[in-house]
Amino acid sequence: MESILTINNLTKKFGYLTAVKDLSFTINKGNVYGILGPNGSGKSTTLGIVLNVVNKTQGDFHWFDGNTSTHDALKKVGAIIERPNFYPYMTATQNLRLVCKIKGVDYSKVEEKLEVVGLLDRKDSKFKTYSLGMKQRLAIASALLNDPEILILDEPTNGLDPQGIHQIREIIKQIAAKGTTILLASHLLDEVEKVCSHVVVLRKGVKLYSGRVDEMISSHGFFELKTNKQEELITLLENNTAFKSIKVEGDLITAFLDTPMASEDFNKYTFEQGIILTHLVQRKESLEEQFLQLTDNN
Amino acid sequence: MLRLLNLELQKLLLNRTSKILIFVSFILPFFVILLSSLKINVFGFFTLELGELGIFNFPIIWHLTTFFASQFKFFFAIVVVSMIGNEYSNKTIKQNLIDGLSKKEFILSKFYTIVFFSLVSTILISLISFCIGLYYSSYTEASIIFRETEFLLAYFVKLIGFFSLCLFFGMLVKRSAFALAFLFILYILEWILFGLMAWKTDTGMAEKIQNFFPLKSMYKLIDQPFQRIAMTKFPDKANLSYDYVAHWYEMAIVLGWTALFVFLSYRLLKKRDL
């Protein structure tokens, strides 16, 4: 697969603090990646290093095949870090034209991208008059100007209201559907779960996991059960080696699987044992549960 | 190069404050010189006409106009300092780099702008001096007109040097107001050092060393013209004579500082995490 970004043993120290420690991963073309981690886990620092604004302490990284300098490679990248940064006294069009000049892109792209993010009717308003949601959408338009091979978004929905969050997510989904590689840093797990196929999980600058979202934890999922004969069901489950643990909350029993089992087989099994289930749901852990498990255990 | 200049000019000219300051720094000296060349009737008591004093004669006019015009460089210094300060306060410097501008290009775009405006200013001053000179000067032979035009070069070098210093201070402290304060501190510091040296050694020696200091070396490029005007009025007073010529080595010192300031600005940005 064609690689877009390769990071090898990257380390960044701020004085005594190690923000990123010996980090390695590769971003391949066409996937949507999420970088997950609590606040202060080194997500923004890592992105800062590959985007040429933070100096690395050790290790190296290269864009594409490794033959392009970082600042030339960045002309094929679209990125937004934290807050949208523009010249407040310029209008949206003027700001985007400035970016066109930096990236060496034709001005005709400006209107096209403003259309994508739905800001065309406000294109001649000054940036300082924009709401936060509009500013963030302008930032996305700016990142898209050069039709980038990869779009890097750092906390794109931070501080937005529900409508704003929804708009940004829709735009991200549209872009992903067109086959653009996306790297999304966030601590909002449902956000990552909804759009990403691959994740890199960081904690205190150390990589805990990198790979497909659904392979993050080697787990066979769990059943959520309700029945009128609760005591009997619990004994049954405890004696069955297919389950590794059981959790009871009120009348809801959660049984974690140790080996794969289909729900119809389980339903048939309990019925044969004389227990009739009133509620049966088979689920895998959500990203949030998996993430908490990963970050707590290590 | 044009791309970088174009980039910076857009940033400056769309900003109302810097537009006004640029306008003032170019138009004000222009007008002051123009006005002073006119015949002014002071409330009917007497007519003040500076042209009559012979100060608009070639070649002394080159000296005079460049000296006065360089006093207005402070306005554009504010622009230089704020064009760095604004990049930091708007965090657009970070965005520029992310968008694919290299750190070297960032500094160069600022430096090209400095050179560009210094050049425009020099051309304006030379044009107006030339016109006023032609009008007033008693001598209009080409050999006299173009004598001492090295003051124009000195003026150009002086502006570039001074604005590069502002660029460096801007990069160093990131805030426009503090950078201007630093300029003032440097000015005081140079005089304190001069005082110390004059106290420890002798004044002549101290002055020679002081001529290498950044601000003093820039000032020294175009010496004050008053004494020279006095000299033309009283040619027999030998104790008035002084070295007012814009020497090549004075320019070399300032160009040395310029190179150092631009290089240091680049090093500073390169080392810094944004």
How would you describe this protein?
The complex is a heterodimer of chains A (298) and B (274). Chain A folds into 2 domains: 3-215, P-loop containing nucleotide triphosphate hydrolases (Rossmann fold); 222-297, 2-Layer Sandwich (Alpha-Beta Plaits). Helices cover 33% and strands 30% of the residues of chain A. Chain A contains 10 helices and 13 strands. A 6-stranded mixed β-sheet of chain A has the order 5-6-7-3-8-9, with helices on both faces. The model of chain A has no long low-confidence stretch (mean pLDDT 86). Chain B has one domain (2-271). In chain B, helix 2 (16-36) runs parallel beside helix 6, helix 6 (103-136) runs antiparallel to helix 8 and helix 8 (150-173) runs antiparallel to helix 11. Chain B is globular. The two termini of chain B are 25 Å apart. Classes of the chains: A alpha/beta (298), B mainly alpha (274). The interface between A and B is medium-sized, with 31 and 28 residues. Chain B: It comes from Flavivirga algicola. Chain B: It holds the Pfam family ABC2_membrane_2. Chain B: This is ABC transporter permease subunit.
